[in-house]
């Protein structure tokens, strides 16, 4: 098994007598996007700051390793392996985009020629060549974010922390940013993403953790999280009215849509449930023309997990990766 990009055990942090993080375990596989969600003030930025060595973890935290290095004993090695772009950009508005890039190259002690090459490559890759000689203060929000990420990449980090990278961007700029993030991951970079946009996590993240009340309320793929919430169903559509009636009789609990000749069968979309539905159809010798699985969206998951009523984990034991803690 390869070493995880991030392995944090019992992450704790308190401000005064308020425990913001109260024993959070996080494991992020290399080359994946991991998204941390949570309501305002849940501790997402605090987590990013600890993992990126900007603030120290609480003294009673367990071992925290980033890029294989122990955060407590080798923070320099961690810093060398990571890049961070926060909610407050590192871009200096008074100088040009190119000068910002060259400043970064200097900070990373790149030889002058190498620094120029890296800066030019990244400006090209992030579609900033035309604006490179203009002061960064004249850039749009999307351009500033692109420059910010380009600056982070000067040091060739293997792990990037993106703290709300698309907040305030219009939909097109947000989609551009998603493409950039996908490109980074395709190059093998690990991305630790915090976001307020659940669709963003849904689109990008391999795994999602929901932070609430100092702990991880649930963790899994977007699909696994959606299956934790009631409201999912399997929709069966028929063209033959007799088949529709036969199925309706066989599947007692289904909600009928007479007009569309469709049945909505409450289901978590898990394998066992689907088997049972198909077995009952088979036993009644009816065949659906179309079967679709509908799961709640991440908004439903977020509200359920952070609003008090944490749903029970579904009965299916064949989904061991799914966890409500
Ligand atoms: N330096 C500090 N001193 C005291 N309290 C702090 C400090 N930094 C953060 N906090 C508190 O810790 C809690 C977590 O803050 P944090 O910024 O990590 O939350 P967040 O999940 O990133 O929120 P948001 O979505 O609003 O950015 C908040 O209640 C915040 O007020």
In percent, how much strand structure appears in the residues? 15-25%
Mean pLDDT equals 88
User: By CATH's scheme, which homologous superfamily of the largest domain applies?
Assistant: P-loop containing nucleotide triphosphate hydrolases
Number of strands: 15
Q: Helix-strand pattern, N to C?
A: EEEHEEHEHHHEHEHEEHEHEEHEHE
Question: What molecules are bound to this protein?
Answer: adenosine-5'-triphosphate
CATH topology of the largest domain: Rossmann fold
**Regions with pLDDT < 50 over 5+ consecutive residues?**
309-325
Helix tally? 11
Provide the spatial order of strands within the biggest beta sheet.
6-7-8-3-9-10-15
Describe this structure in words.
With 325 residues, the chain is of the alpha/beta class. It folds into 2 domains: 6-91 and 139-226, P-loop containing nucleotide triphosphate hydrolases (Rossmann fold, 3-Layer(aba) Sandwich); 233-294, no CATH class. It contains 11 helices and 15 strands. Residues 309-325 have low confidence and may be disordered.
């Amino acid at each position: 098994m390869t070493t995880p990009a991030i392995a944090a055990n019992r992450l704790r942090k308190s401000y005064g007598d308020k425990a913001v993080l109260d024993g959070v375990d996080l494991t992020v596989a290399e080359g994946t996007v991991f998204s941390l969600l949570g309501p305002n003030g849940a501790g997402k930025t605090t987590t990013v700051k600890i993992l990126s060595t900007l603030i120290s973890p609480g003294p009673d935290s367990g071992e925290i390793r980033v890029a294989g290095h122990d955060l407590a004993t080798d923070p320099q090695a961690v810093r060398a392996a990571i890049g961070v772009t926060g909610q407050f950009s590192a871009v200096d508005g008074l100088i040009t985009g190119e000068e910002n890039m060259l400043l970064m190259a200097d900070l990373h002690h790149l030889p002058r020629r190498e620094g120029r090459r890296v800066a030019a490559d990244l400006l090209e890759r992030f579609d900033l060549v035309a604006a490179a000689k203009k002061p960064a203060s004249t850039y749009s929000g999307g351009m500033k974010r692109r420059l910010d990420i380009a600056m982070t990449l000067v040091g060739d980090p293997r792990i990037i922390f993106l703290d709300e990278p698309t907040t305030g961007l219009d939909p097109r700029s947000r989609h551009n940013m998603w493409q950039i993030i996908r490109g980074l991951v395709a190059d093998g970079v690990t991305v630790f993403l915090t976001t307020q946009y659940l669709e963003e996590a849904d689109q990008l993240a391999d795994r999602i953790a929901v932070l609430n009340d100092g702990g991880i309320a649930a963790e899994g793929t977007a699909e696994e999280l959606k299956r934790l919430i009631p409201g999912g169903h399997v929709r069966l559509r028929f063209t033959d009215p007799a088949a529709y009636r036969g199925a309706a009789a066989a599947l007692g609990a289904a909600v009928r849509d007479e007009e569309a000749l469709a049945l909505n069968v409450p289901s978590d979309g898990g394998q066992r449930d689907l088997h049972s539905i198909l077995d009952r159809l088979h036993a009644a010798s009816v065949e659906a023309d179309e079967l679709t699985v509908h799961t709640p969206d991440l908004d439903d998951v977020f509200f359920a997990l952070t609003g008090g009523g944490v749903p029970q984990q579904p009965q299916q034991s064949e989904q061991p990766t799914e966890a409500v803690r």
